[in-house]
Predict the structure.
Amino acid sequence: MLWTVFAQREPELARLGERLLDENHGYTFLSTVAADGSPRIHPIAPILGAGGLCVAITHRSPKLADLRREPRIALHSTVVPPDDEEFAVRGVVREVEGDRARTAAVAGARSGAHLSEAMVLFEVDLREVGWARWSQGQPARRRWHATEERAER
């Protein structure tokens, strides 16, 4: 499910994610799968725009080859005290091609994202979203799964 649809169906959880995935909160970590099958972690600044949740990757980055070979990803926000709030996404990425589609995808992005020719843009198809806040060693959690959404239809 695209972020725009998710935000309509789960507005409170989406607002939490928008705040915690914002670059002002800190970097978000992108997990990809390397060619040998091992996990690889990369700090990134995801883009939340009119087209949904996207990640922009430079042509020289090893994560570009990872994503083109294996599109499954995980994103995790930086955890910042004192609330120790965290937000995580699991999904599958799809490359956004063409100048018009790329411009539309990042339109209205909070970070004022500008895509150079050196960047490849990927849109995230959400499979699972989770939020947690830790207080005195105990988490308060909210989760959403795309499989639950399909079961309700």
